[in-house]
Amino acid sequence: MKTEQAGFVEHITPKSEDFSRWYTDVVLKAELADYAPVRGCMVIRPHGFAIWENIQRLLDGRFKATGHKNAYFPLLIPESLLRKESEHVEGFAPEVAWVTRGGQEELAERLVVRPTSETIICSMYSRWIKSWRDLPVLINQWCNVLRWEKTTRPFLRTTEFLWQEGHTAHRTAEEAEQEALRMLDVYRDFATNDLAIPVVWGQKTESEKFAGALRTYCIEALMTDGRALQAGTSHNLGQNFARVFDITFLDEDNRLKHVWQTSWGVSTRLIGALVMVHGDERGLALPPAVAPIQVVIVPIMPPKDKEAVLARAREIAARLSGRFRVHLDDREEYSPGWKFNDWELRGVPLRMEIGPRDLKAGQVMLARRHSGEKESVSQEGIEETVARVLDEIQKGLYERARRFRDENTHDVDTYDEFQSIASSALPGFIRAGWCGSAECEAAIKAETGATIRCIPFEDAGKGTCVRCGKDGGRIVYFAKAY
Amino acid sequence: MKTEQAGFVEHITPKSEDFSRWYTDVVLKAELADYAPVRGCMVIRPHGFAIWENIQRLLDGRFKATGHKNAYFPLLIPESLLRKESEHVEGFAPEVAWVTRGGQEELAERLVVRPTSETIICSMYSRWIKSWRDLPVLINQWCNVLRWEKTTRPFLRTTEFLWQEGHTAHRTAEEAEQEALRMLDVYRDFATNDLAIPVVWGQKTESEKFAGALRTYCIEALMTDGRALQAGTSHNLGQNFARVFDITFLDEDNRLKHVWQTSWGVSTRLIGALVMVHGDERGLALPPAVAPIQVVIVPIMPPKDKEAVLARAREIAARLSGRFRVHLDDREEYSPGWKFNDWELRGVPLRMEIGPRDLKAGQVMLARRHSGEKESVSQEGIEETVARVLDEIQKGLYERARRFRDENTHDVDTYDEFQSIASSALPGFIRAGWCGSAECEAAIKAETGATIRCIPFEDAGKGTCVRCGKDGGRIVYFAKAY
After folding, report:
1. What predicted TM-score, i.e. pTM, was given to this entire model?
2. Same structural domain, A33 and A173
């Protein structure tokens, strides 16, 4: 596809001019994804999927370190199961795909393609869980889910997407609450340290919580267009599903009790967040922790020095490849300048240039994707140098995003101020008081387009409702959101 | 679920008495899988899924080492795409699930839940591939597929299953043929060295080849009930799909040409093969390479020595855990004997017992799951000892399976002999001559239930057709198959 790229690299819509077209251009031209010939579906191309594989590896390690095991539950859910939990079905029935024919026969009962798996998993837990000895059950599943969305955008909102969904069952309410909060913290830690995306976290309001949950917790990130993106959710399901699906256990005190449950998930949407948080006019800028290629080596090869330069480039690539994800771009049909653009578009965090002059000087040129900063460094101890620089890039990306997030988080007292910020070109997070009523929440949404992203855990004090002026509320995070 | 296990362990149907019930008992009671409340679907439980994760890791490493990248294509395929390749649609249309409703609307065009992804992937390749520079395209996808099977059995044949499907596009017929054979060899190597399952390999007959392929290659394994299981297939698709989906590239000679393609796959069916090849009356016996737990440590803890024994067991577990997948079973509510049975049922290849006497002697007792062999070994250098023993177990399982396969492979000249072996309790592989005609193939299948599993690559010489007596045919592998 290189041949097309040559043209493409120049043609990304300026971010400043049209953020949403810029986003789509980057996704398509960096070959993260492509549109599929199925309504609202995308194809995740190798470069995009390699990011997802890194996300999976880094999250799965954290899940297993906290005692979780993976399993796999069926894609198709009988309608009767979906309908068991009333809030749940209300929330999901309108947006599911229905399988009505199998092979040659009309089905007696329609099947939904899972939009999420609580119902099918609960039906199994009710069989598996008998005694307090069977608890806790800590299971996660990596899979595809389908939601029949009206408007779709690659990674952010697609009919089908990939995700992980954790589903746990516990002996006590306390354990379930701890689990829900533990996994929220796993997400926060992962977003911060691997995705280099700063987040705010807290609890969702009643109107924004998961259908069927007692409480929903979330992490929220700020995109560079000033809109918020929900990056992960963790639900305390209480005993709602346990009652409906009759998941009981004989406790040590010989009494039969319902289990307490949680579920939590993140999706390929995180790839969209990476684009919108770190990307720029030249395309993607990936944090080293999740970049498919961390270092690309581009040899500068004038004919007479070609062999010597290539030999050294190969030697350095070999030295680095044990510790880093390295690619040597030794293609001859493209100029170094063209390669620079191409790898910048794809977001490779560090570029290493090596030419005849570097050969003599025993040096290489390092160029950082996110800052454009270049420095000549010695070939000696290059492994340590690259490790240090990648670490600086990872931190640099986070710091830049954190600064942006902080500069675009506004503490607001008056509704006028609220409205003017919400209607500005770069709204960002608005921290303001809320009385706790669904009425004010709905009115604010209707009048400004801003929704409550989360109620922070730590009491930010003074909570005079920015709309009705009632006192004794909470300070919460508002934003226009994806 | 432990509490139930106690009862379960005793109640596996004897393999000798009823192989098929024995298989189901092992799958359910070792908690590899469970039946789902959806027709023909199963739940892959953590112990079964952990085997799949090891299979994925070991295969994915081989795929990447041979230059392949992972991607993800949509689950749903428009009916019109499926219908483009006539043989292909004939092969799959009868056994697909149909999505006819999305959200609130009836769909204008029905969608099939992918039974395999050639059509959707080809529709993308026709967009992506423009020039010889874009070739080869070497993409693999790990995903779920659906086939509306009439009769189903956990892992062996289920409505939904997990698999990987590789889809490649090449510049020349030779490259495509090489790729199809290279991936068949990857499967053969994986089955042999990691699954410890010996296989025969070769080409499928016209009647058994993949719908739409030019040639299908396969590896076939022999289960301990004397039936064959197709364990992996690799297809040379020629230009059939390229013509239908118009996948062309401008070659260096400036002429527009159709690409040459392959596809290849293995599925969760391999877990069923592990059960049927290595399992015995006591349950599963897993090869160390894919066992979720390679070493289980069972401390023998009479009250007065409990602390001392546990302390040493923990220390040894810590020493081993860096190199092996180790589990210390320190549960107090179960007796050592009960634990032995439980871990044997689950197929853990090596059990380490440590009690007061071992403590004094500075030894531990090692018990091999597949042979029952026990030996006392020194705690000193236990890492090396365990590495050696696990290696012996891996080889031992393979050797036992190879011997069984060889002892149950019969060279047959007469049709009488063929029929008597095919109708015996333990048919196995039958190596016999075949004239190459579809008539004889069909007649043999109708009369004996045996099908041609593969035509071996190396000419096994003398090919007088075992049914029609015509000369100049090939020696092929027949078997009754799953």
Report:
1. 0.96
2. yes
